[in-house]
Design a protein that fits this description.
151 residues; mainly alpha; two-stranded antiparallel sheet; 2 domains
Length: 151
């Protein structure tokens, strides 16, 4: 039906343009108006498309940031749980406390033998680094009586 109407209008316009020059001007104005409307519609589609692409890019960037933050949160949570277990163990287990004091802070028991060895290697400062070797006493003693190492 619309095709028949379009054909009818085209035939009528063609017949009118042959007879009146003012009708030709009206048809040109009508075509110019149609061109402007079409340009506005195409521009709106272009703006909507660019806005959609920019928003989609921002959304995917936000998703990747969320994934990174989730992974970091999982790592931090596991670290916190491990540290809480270590603190609980240090509060309740005397051997764990002694092990920490020996390895991290360099304490030795009374009666332990400490041997300091100079490492072979050239250092820019000219001083040779010293490596400490601790030999534990074979007889078990209480976890008291720690003394710090003198350097």
């Amino acid at each position: 039906m619309s095709q028949a109407a379009n054909t009818f209008l085209v035939n009528r316009i063609n017949a009118t343009t042959k007879s009146h020059p003012a009708a030709k001007r009206g048809i040109r104005m009508h075509r110019a108006f149609d061109s402007v409307v079409l340009a506005v519609i195409l521009a709106a589609c272009g703006i909507c498309g660019s806005y959609y692409l920019r928003t989609r890019t921002e959304f995917s960037a936000a998703l990747s940031k969320k994934e990174v933050a989730t992974e970091r949160l999982a790592r931090v949570t596991s670290d916190v749980e491990r540290l809480e277990r270590d603190v609980q163990r240090l509060r309740t287990d005397a051997k764990a406390f002694e092990e920490l004091a020996r390895h991290k802070f360099g304490f030795v028991r009374e009666g332990d033998v400490v041997i300091k060895l100079a490492q072979s290697g050239n250092d820019d400062s000219g001083s040779s680094p010293v490596q400490e070797v601790r030999l534990a006493n074979l007889t078990p003693q209480a976890a008291t009586g720690y003394t710090g190492l003198s350097h």
